[in-house]
Amino acid sequence: MENPVVPEVPDFAPSGRNLYTSLENVGMALLKAVAIGLELDENFFDEKVRGGHSVLRPIHYPPIVGEPEGSIRAGEHEDINLITLLVGSSAGGLEVLDANGKWLQVGAHTEHITINVGDMLQNLTGGILKSTTHRVALPERNLWHTPRYSVPFFLHPVGPMSLTPIMGSKDYKSWTAQEYLDHRLKEIGLK
Questions:
Q1: Of 48, 64, 143, 161, which sits most exposed with the smallest number of CB within 10 A?
Q2: Of 24, 74, 30, 76, whose CA–CA distance to 53 is shortest?
Q3: Tell me: the pLDDT tens digits for 150-164?
Q4: Is 68 helix (H, G, I), strand (E, B) or coil?
Q5: Contacts with 157 (C-beta within 8 Å, 6 or more apart), sequence order
């Protein structure tokens, strides 16, 4: 499927393509480091990821105009993919769950990239690398009128990549990236 054209912002598509390519390259470099850290060949992920089903997804959280039902903009979840690269955000709210079950705030930095391990990498490593549970909480009441924007890049492998655990616990299931993606999308009601 082709990306939509945004005639009102002529630089939108080329800028988006450039950002996508840049983040894919950063992700590939990070996966080289992961491979080395796991004592795999440094090129272990190269042909499994390049040309995969990665997604660059600009997200808009609109201003809060009425009393919300809860204190969360996006409920707690883990990402399905290998790794997520989050290019800053326009406002705070991102929180990660630490090993002790405490929610920690992640600052909104426009000059930093926040990196997340996803479920596919957790499965592949048999839980040695843990998927990051995270959520987006509401801002302080005096900031409800402020929208929040974020631009995560979800680095997905090619569909046939095996996610059979190569180390760690063998309690994780053997499947391909496409089988796992289909399973999770059905599980969360998107497919």
A1: 143
A2: 24
A3: 999 999 999 999 999
A4: coil
A5: 45, 48, 49, 52, 53, 82, 120, 177
